[in-house]
TrEMBL record:
Family: Belongs to the mTERF family.
Name of the protein in question: Transcription termination factor 3, mitochondrial
Gene Ontology MF term list: nucleic acid binding
Organism per entry: Noccaea caerulescens (Alpine penny-cress)
PANTHER family in alphabetical order: CGI-12 PROTEIN-RELATED, MITOCHONDRIAL TRANSCRIPTION TERMINATION FACTOR FAMILY PROTEIN
InterPro entries per record: MTERF, MTERF_sf
Length: 150
């Protein structure tokens, strides 16, 4: 506890000293502050661009492959993002091979977008095969998953 108080006093003294120095030479400190702010801003812009790159790819992929509206694709990309089409393509081809229409796939992805980044062969295919082994027809399978994708 004592060390926290001591550290707190040092912080207050530093703040007082910094304010005094800033008041003594505002032009020098303003340019230093401006330079550090612009470099921090540039670093933030780079990380935002990298994040947007994946998000933009996700949006364009959803619009091109599923025919979603850009607004809906943007909304989905806030929940899931990917930078290549390997996993999403395998998920879509798995659904299509089990008789799902694009409309049904859109409904599923809209409700549960995380399916696009799931492993189609290790995670989704066994579940679909299990439902079929229990007697679910293709039409029942598509109806069940469209209504309850989780």
């Amino acid at each position: 506890m004592n060390s926290l108080i001591l550290h707190g006093r040092r912080l207050v003294e530093f703040q007082k000293c910094f304010k005094l120095r800033f008041a003594a030479d505002p032009l020098l400190n303003a340019s230093a502050f401006s330079n550090s702010f612009s470099s921090a801003s540039a670093a933030a812009d780079i990380s935002l661009r990298d994040g947007r790159k994946g998000q933009n790819f996700t949006v364009s992929y959803l619009v091109d492959s599923l025919g979603l509206t850009p607004k809906l694709a943007q909304s989905i990309s806030r929940k899931v993002s990917f930078e290549d089409k390997g996993s999403p393509d395998s998920v879509l081809s798995l659904f299509r091979s089990h008789g799902f229409t694009n409309s049904q796939i859109c409904d599923i992805i809209t409700d549960y977008p995380q399916l696009l980044i799931a492993d189609a062969e290790k995670s989704l295919a066994p579940k679909l095969q299990f439902l079929q082994s229990r007697g679910a027809s293709r039409s029942e399978l598509t109806e069940i998953l469209t209504k309850v994708p989780k």
